[in-house]
Each structure stands twice: as structure tokens, then as C-alpha cells.
Amino acid sequence: MAKLQIHRIPARTDNYLWLAHEPDSGATTVVDPADAQPVIDKLEALGLKLTHILNTHHHGDHTGGNLELKEKYGCTVVGSAADAHRIPGIDVQVADGDTYDLGTERAQVFDVTGHTLGHIMYWFADSRALFCGDTLFAMGCGRLSEGTADQMWKALSKFRALPDDTQVYCAHEYTQTNARFALTIEPDNAALQARAAEVDRMRAEDIATVPSLLGEERATNPFLRAGEPELMAAIGMTGAAPVEVFAETRRRKDKF
Ligand code: ZN
Ligand code: FE
After folding, report:
1. Does the N terminus or the C terminus of the chain have fewer Cβ atoms within 10 A?
2. Any catalytic annotation for residue 85?
3. What is the CATH number of the domain that holds 121?
4. Is residue 129 part of a domain?
5. What is the spatial distance between Cα 97 and Cα 32, in angstroms, rounded to a whole number?
6. Which residue ranges of the chain lie beneath pLDDT 70?
């Protein structure tokens, strides 16, 4: 049953850090602390003590708070074995197929190399919570800053295997721009039109659009949909290999 209590911590311009608390054991983790202070403020407001940091990848807006938080709380830093040399303060190295227990809640670790080499994500099946860093965004996906289109497409295939009711806790509020781009790819997608309008309404009221449901992403996210005949037809690539369609969609986004 959904046991993790998850809190959103906005940071920097558009980062979301996620605080996840497992009440039976008291285990409390932050996923991708860009900075320590907003995490400390949230922990104090909730009366919690940090026991873990889970990192998805090495970028500074995901690890910048690691050392200060570790110093203050003595928490355990968990990150990708392949990225260990770039994760400040790493204590536990995990890799694709591993599990990691946060109190009574178990995370499955997936390698999702693409945005960076060694990027991982954490899937808490019982809580239906997926912490995916900069791999999948609401209606978008991460830039290929280190990996290839082939690698990112393989990473995205791992999302497609998870259930529709998965809550996707990505690390940035990029949703509105992503929706505008997605509409250039699939202007006739009714689910996308409706979601884009809802996102415009939410952002006008300064409401966060993350997490989103994986089912909504399947219906509206052009990067997850690169293998769908409707999307291929919409960009004039009927019959092409899905990875080529993905690569073309990513190229268009880079220029958007
Ligand atoms: Zn990043
Ligand atoms: Fe980031």
C-alpha cells in the first residue's frame, strides 16, 4: 500500500526536490537535493530527520546539497555505481536491477542512461512512486547531454513497462513549454490538447504540474509516443523505426 508520504520542495528556478517519508521506520529521504537549505527548512517544518539521499545523476542541480546535508544529518547517500566518481559523498552504489529499501518500502533501480551516462531512477512499486530525475518530464524528456538517442529510447522503454497509475516525480517544472512543443508534433491529439489547456490554467495560478501519471504521459508525451503510428504519421515518418522517430522528435525539441 502507498506508504511513502511525499512532499514537494521547489528550489532554484524550476527544480523540484522530493522528500519521501516512510512512517513505520521513520526513514526519510530527499531525492536529488539541489541545495541543502530548502531541504532543511522543509524537514524542520515537518519535524523530520533526514536518513537518506537518493541521487538520480551527477548534475549540480541534483547533488549540490549532498555534502552539507550529509554533514548535518549523517544520512546515507545512495547513487549510481556507474556515476559514483561524480556523486558527492556517495555511500551506497546501486545499479540496474538492484533494489534499495527505504524502511519498509522497496525501490527497484533502473539504469536510464541518456540524459547523462549512469543516470538511474527509483521505482517504489507499493507506493506507485517513480523518481526519475531528468529522464522523463511531464510531456517531455531530458536533453541528451551525455548519452545517445539510442540510449534514451532504451531508457524510455523502461517507463513503458510500468503501470498507468505510476506517479512520475520528475525534477523540473518544464511542463508548459513541453506542452507547447508537444502540440507542434501532434496538433490533433485530443488528450494532449486537453492536458495543455489544463496546464496553462494551473500555471496561471502558479500550481505545480508535477507529479503526473504515467498513463497521461503515455497518451500525451511525444517522446514516449515515438513508436505510435499516429505520431509517426503526424510527423511524416510512417514506417520508420521508433528510435529514429524519437531521435527526430528530440532534434526538433532541441531547436524549439
Ligand atoms: Zn540533469
Ligand atoms: Fe536537472
Report:
1. N
2. no
3. 3.60.15.10
4. yes
5. 20
6. 1-2
Domain holding 123, by residue range, is 5-175+209-217
- Residues written for the chain: 256
Tell me, yes or no, whether 198 lies in a domain: no
Domain count, the chain: 1
Q: Note whether residue 14 is domain-resident.
A: yes
The answer to the question of residue 159 being in a domain is: yes
Per residue in 94-148, pLDDT (tens digit) is: 999 999 999 999 999 999 999 999 999 999 999 999 999 999 999 999 999 999 9
Whether 7 is a known active-site residue: answer: no
**Catalytic: 57?**
yes
> How many other β-carbons are positioned within 10 Å of the β-carbon of residue 216?
18
Distance from Cα 241 to the centre of ligand 2, integer Å: 29
Q: Is 52 noted as a catalytic residue in this protein?
A: no
Q: Which cell is 138 given? A: 511531464
For residue 46, how far is the Cα from the chain centroid? 24
31 alpha carbon – ligand 1 mean position (Å): 13
* Cis preceding-peptide flag for 211 (omega within 30 of 0): yes
